[in-house]
Structures are given as structure tokens and as C-alpha cells.
Amino acid sequence: MLLRVRVTLPDRPGTLGQVARTLGVSGADIVQVVVLERLGGRAVDDFTVVWPGAARVERLLAGLAAIPGVRVDGVWRAIGAPTTTGQDAELLAQVAGNPAEGVATLVDAVPGLLAADWAVAAVVPLDWASRGGGGTAAVGHASWRAPVPPPLPEVTPLRARSMTAHGGTHYAVAPFGRAGLVLVVAREHREPLAAAAFHATEVDRLAQLVRASAVILGDRLDLVGPPSLTA
Predict the structure, then answer these.
(1) Is pTM beyond 0.70 here?
(2) The domain at 2-77 falls in which architecture?
(3) Is the peptide bond before 227 cis (omega within 30 degrees of 0)?
(4) Ranges for the ACT domain (predicted)?
(5) Alpha helices per DSSP H over 54-199
(6) Tens of pLDDT, residues 36-74
(7) Helices and strands of the chain, counted as H and E runs
(8) In the chain, where are the structural domains located?
(9) Which contiguous run of DSSP H or E holds residue 33?
(10) Over the stretch 119-132, which tens digit does the pLDDT of each residue have?
């Protein structure tokens, strides 16, 4: 199975090699490494690895924890092949090529792009958070792994942001800028694994995709909502 492993490590020569060797010794086959952040002598890296299903993740965590200065921020299952920002242009081309299905195309693709479990496009009232949320938003489209009804965070759709619910589910939310329409992406908490929260780099990527899709789709976004509910 594919795993995403996020680590914070000292940004100095040799440390990345130590992490890579530890992953290999533990049984992981590295598929991709993405640098999310380099700041103040520290780096945040995402490793996508092929992990043998019978192996114990605890061995991997113990090995990484033994490296001086290294912290494991999350380990979780990734669905599909790892993706990079270079594929965002291809996704936007698909949205533009079939604008009638543009929102559905975006929603279905985003979980794979961000190593998430599911996503939904929902119309959220501007005062929804102040009224307690509670899953009352109107869902226009949901990806195939989304629960029915999807548990949505209490959020006022004014800006892109990340958040974590009480049960441990991590969310990234980005507004389309029209009538309370937002794209919500979720990583669920599943023992014994623990997903990492959405990094600012990932939130920015989601926001850019949503903004570009909003420009492409224009008035078609007004059709997403109660008249075309799928969930």
C-alpha cells in the first residue's frame, strides 16, 4: 500500500539521507519526496512510500524517532499515485474542456492531489459557523469516498484555511467566491495511523485550484447547490 510520511527535520547535509536510509531499512520503498517548507534551519518533507501491508508501522516510527532532530508529523494512507503541482494545469484543462462537469471534475481529483480521503463542494451560509454548523450545508458534489452525509467543519467561507475537528479529522477549505460555495477536503483519523494536518503549502495549492476553476466556470457555479444536489 502507499503511505504518506511527513517529517520535520534539520535542514542540514546528511539528515535527509538518514531519513531515507531509515525508511529503506524499515521496509519502505520511496516513490517520491516533496519539500513543503524550509525555514529557520528546519525542513518539512513529505515522503510517499510503498509499504508492505504485513509490516508494522511502529517499527518505522521508532526508527525515524531515533534520528536526532527528526519529528514525525504524520503517517497515513495515500490513495492513488503521488501527484505534483505540474498536474494542476492538466486538471484545470479538464475543467475547461467540460465546464458542465467542471465542479465534479475538480472535487473528484483533489483528494488524489492532496493525499486526502475525500472532498465535497458545498454551499455554506455566511453565518453557518455562528449558528453551530452541524452538517446543514447543501452538498453539490461529493467524491466517491465521501461519507453520506459528509461531516463538514463549522466554517465561514471567507478565506482558504485548514482546521482539525475534535475527532481528529483534518480539513482544508477554500471558497469559490460565489454564494458561499466552498471546496472541503478531508483527511480522516484512522488508527493506528495518524494523518498530518494540511500544510500551508497544500492550502495555498487548493486555493489556487479553486480560484482558477472559479474563473473558468464563471456563472456555472451558481448552478451548484439545492437545485442540483447529489447528496
Answers:
(1) yes
(2) 2-Layer Sandwich (3.30)
(3) no
(4) 4-77
(5) 57-65, 88-97, 102-113
(6) 999 999 999 999 999 887 567 888 899 999 999 999 999
(7) 5, 9
(8) 2-77, 85-228
(9) strand 29-39
(10) 999 887 665 555 55
